[in-house]
Write a structure and sequence with these properties.
The structure is a single chain. The chain has helices at 16-57, 111-168, 170-184, 200-203, 209-215, 220-223, 229-253, 259-272, 281-293, 298-305, 311-316; strands at residues 60-66, 76-82, 86-91, 95-100, 104-109, 188-192, 204-208. The protein is α+β, with helices and mostly antiparallel strands. Among the domains are: 63-108; 169-316, no CATH class. A hairpin with a 3-residue loop joins strand 2 (76-82) and strand 3 (86-91).
Length: 317
């Protein structure tokens, strides 16, 4: 799983230009794929139909009865090829000869040739039908692939929008900074915690790690002072952060986003709450107990998705 830099406030979102370029590339792929398949189908069908037409116009065994006074007046028994203005007869006795239709009395086609000719046409039509079936399957597979690519792109857009919202909320950003403080700083860090103050310098205060620990009590009525605005602000920050984790877990369950795609954006923060993170177990259990106490069970579910035991351990129980 890829971890984000500990001091970053969120994932590096793609620029609009890059997103637009990828969108246009996928759209062109989506449009050109089926167009290419359809064009290929028409080309192959045209080729097969040309074979059928050529077979119908190809030479056939027959007897050509010539009119009196034409050539030597002897009938020609051979392979006859017809055209609009003339026909060609290729016989063993006279070789290849060309006659105009006005020179022909009539033609006696041989029944056996008609049967063979029909067999060839039927074979070509059968081949054409098989190719049509294959082309239909191919077109369906290409369409299914394009649909999958489109759905993937839609999920990426949906996730990018959700992450942008997650990164942009100030209280959620403060919660990430406080988690960062619990993991990396011994005492605490400066955080823009008090938005009610008019002056910017009064909004940014030093927040001690154990102040965070104390604020995340599951029994605030007894453990916290009613006028402790800093504790209330800390709790509000974690409420927003943990609620987003619950939402992301729901999105994964519904198939709107994938686990790997989410990890690429906020994997660091999910790992930080996992069992193998650098976060002190005391702080980690405090955060998870806070989430459980307020029925944000999706937080634990999301963490488990990224920390499943190996298959052999699951088999052995």
């Amino acid at each position: 799983m890829r971890a984000l830099d500990a001091h970053s406030f969120g994932p590096n979102l793609k620029s609009f230009r890059e997103v637009w370029r990828q969108f246009m590339g996928r759209m062109m792929s989506f449009l050109l794929g089926p167009v290419f398949v359809i064009a290929l189908i028409f080309v192959v069908m045209a080729i097969l139909l040309s074979f059928v037409v050529a077979d119908m116009k190809s030479g056939q065994p027959a007897i050509v009865h010539l009119k009196s006074g034409v050539a030597d007046g002897v009938d020609r028994d051979g392979v006859v090829t017809k055209s609009d203005k003339y026909l060609t007869v290729n016989s063993a006795a006279h070789g290849k000869e060309v006659f105009g239709w006005e020179q022909i009395q009539f033609i006696s086609e041989k029944d056996i040739s008609t049967s063979r000719r029909l067999d060839r046409i039927v074979d070509l039509i059968d081949l054409l039908s098989k190719f049509g079936l294959l082309a239909t399957v191919l077109f369906f597979m290409v369409g299914l692939y394009q649909y999958g690519q489109t759905q993937k792109w839609e999920r990426e857009k949906f996730l990018a929008s959700a992450i942008k919202e997650f990164v942009g909320v100030k209280s959620v950003r403060n919660a990430r900074l406080m988690l960062d403080s619990l993991a990396l700083y011994e005492e605490g860090r400066m955080i823009d915690l008090i938005p009610q103050e008019e002056k910017a310098k009064d909004q940014t205060v030093f927040v001690n790690n154990y102040e965070i620990f104390g604020a995340l009590t599951t029994n605030p009525h007894e453990d916290l002072d009613k006028e402790d605005l800093r504790a209330v602000a800390i709790r509000d920050c974690f409420d927003g952060f943990l609620s987003y984790l619950v939402t992301f877990d729901h999105y994964i369950e519904q198939g709107l986003i994938t686990k790997d795609a989410l990890s690429a954006h906020i994997g660091y923060w999910i790992d930080l709450l996992g069992p193998t993170s650098s976060l002190d177990p005391i702080f980690r259990r405090r955060v998870l107990a806070y989430a459980e106490a307020y029925e944000m069970t999706g937080v634990a579910d999301l963490i488990r998705k990224y920390n499943k035991p190996p298959l052999w351990k699951r088999i052995l129980g």
